[in-house]
Amino acid sequence: MSTAIEFIKAKASMEATEELSLVDVLRARESGVDFCTAAGMFASALEHFESKGHNLYRRMLLEPSDAEALVDYPREAGERRMIILASNNYLGLASHPKVIEAACQAARMYGAGSGSSPLLVGTFPTTRKLETKLANFKGTEEACVFATGYSANVGVISAVCGKNDVVILDRLSHASMVDGAKLSGAQIKVFRHNDVEHLDRVLRRNRDASTRLVAVEGIYSMDGDIARLDEILEVVRKHDALLLVDEAHSTGVLGEGGRGAAAHFGVDGQIDLHVGTLSKALGACGGFVAGKSDLVTYIRYFARSGMFSTAPSPMVTAAAAAAIEVIEEEPWRVERLWDNCRFMHSELKRMGFTISEAPSPIIPVIVGSMPILRQMTLELHQANICVNSVPFPAVPHGSERLRISLTANHTREQLVEALRCLERAAYNAGLCRHKAVA
Question: Per-residue pLDDT averaged across 319-335, rounded?
Fold first, then answer.
């Protein structure tokens, strides 16, 4: 334990702090460092980053989350109007007048909060309306909403699987899927990212499990790539397993009318369970599961994260239902989102950045080191470009990245300005050789 403490203290007191990550603190805890000591060490590290301007988390929006917004950061004297490349509000619906009015009307009729869990008296007409719309949107029989997208994955996976079962996860699966698998008590197996042949072997080796649940994402949250869903489905069916698709980043984004990954691959009605969120393209907050009526009903009663949580607010469910209506009424939003995706991807590739292979609303710009990541994030902030900084251990060492998120509301002028600032920040950090136009 003393070795771990001295290691962390040394890092926290030297310039090497630039390489300090959450993993160092977690390793100290695993080595026996008590919680209060670890918290104190982490606070010291944060103070160091704050003094250098590198702690750019918890910036406060003073306007709706959109392509551009007024941002306040406590360490600075004034406010900044920034181009927001850090929002998952893909279709710009969080500030859509129809969505806002639906929330306001629900608040006037039913109050601000639900006041109870879903199975007791936490269900309102807005809840039923949203669940019907979600089921229709996904081409399923039934849907059930949760308070958050995280609790949806945790609740669904832990309700579907138990000690006699196995959960098979893609290696890049979201933390909520991993946590749901752990809570279930089932065996957890992992297959290489998007490797259908490896999935086939894992399923074959685990053929004796009572229930085998394969869980993948429609669009992966950190890499922005799409699951090979048609091929995965074929393998899952061959082994008589169940398939769960986390559509958090693909609902409202992929497929005709933004109906998701199943629509994108033409396998509508063949996915056992769609899990998703209301907080991204649908512009609200919360989560959902959609599928066959008997499966969803079982989950509704046995998912602990739903049963023992207060139900989503009537304002939230009304807003999300209105957002689905807007997606259907204004299909140009999905088209404009993909226009922005293709433009940004093409320009970043032309500039020589290391990015994903195909266009996506999520574009990881790989910088490969913590100091460069922090320097570029700060410079972009000072240039009024708000972008997500993703360090190790959220991604593997050497793949530290800027995570760009695009929306349908970004104008071409905003994207061109962001590209100019990105190129200049990369040059100043030594990431590229040619200097951007000032």
Answer: 97
The single residue listed with the structure tokens 């771990």 is 4
* Topology agreement, domain 60-85+331-428 and domain 94-329: no
* Alpha-carbon span 124 to 319, nearest angstrom: 13
280 is catalytic: yes
Asked if residue 250 lies in contact with residue 261, where contact means CB atoms within 8 angstroms, the answer is yes
For residue range 383-408, list pLDDT tens digits in order: 999 999 998 888 888 899 999 999 99
Catalytic residue among 54, 133, 249, 345: 249
Rounded Cα–Cα distance for residues 289 and 222 (Å): 22
Q: Does residue 14 carry a pLDDT above 50?
A: no
- Predicted confidence (pLDDT) per residue in 112-138, tens digit: 999 999 999 999 999 999 999 999 999
Residue 23 has pLDDT above 80, yes or no: no
Largest CA distance in the chain: 63
Assess whether 98 carries a catalytic annotation.
no
Which DSSP letter does residue 121 get?
Answer: T
Please tell me which residue in 170, 246, 272, 423 is annotated as part of the active site: 246
Q: Phi then psi for 297, rounded to 5 degrees?
A: -60, -45
User: Does the annotation count 217 as an active-site position?
Assistant: yes
249 is catalytic: yes
Residue 221 annotated to the active site: yes
Which residue ranges make up each domain of the chain?
Answer: 60-85+331-428, 94-329
* Topology, domain 94-329: Aspartate Aminotransferase; domain 2 (3.40.640)
Across residues 151-170, what is the average pLDDT? 97
pLDDT value, residue 1:
45
User: In terms of C-beta density within 10 A (0-12 exposed, 13-18 middle, 19 or more buried), how is residue 182 classed?
Assistant: middle
- Which tokens belong to 341? 């995706």
Catalytic hit among 217, 225, 272, 400: 217
The whole-number pLDDT of residue 430 equals 86
Distance between CA 195 and CA 228 in Å, rounded?
Answer: 9
Among 48, 129, 280, 381, which one carries the catalytic annotation? 280
Is 158 an annotated catalytic residue? Answer: no
**CATH of region 60-85+331-428:** 3.90.1150.10
* Cα(295)–Cα(290) distance, integer angstroms: 9
Whether pLDDT at 10 is above 80 = no
Q: Could you confirm whether 79 is annotated as catalytic?
A: no
Q: Is the pLDDT of residue 183 over 80?
A: yes
For residue 15, what is the DSSP state? Answer: G
Question: Average pLDDT of 338-365?
Answer: 95
Closest by CA to 404, choosing from 433, 425, 435, is 425
pLDDT at res. 18: 56
Rounded-to-integer distance, Cα 54 and Cα 240, Å = 50
Per the residue annotation, which of 151, 173, 221, 360 is the catalytic one?
A: 221
The pTM of the full predicted model, rounded to 2 decimals, is: 0.92
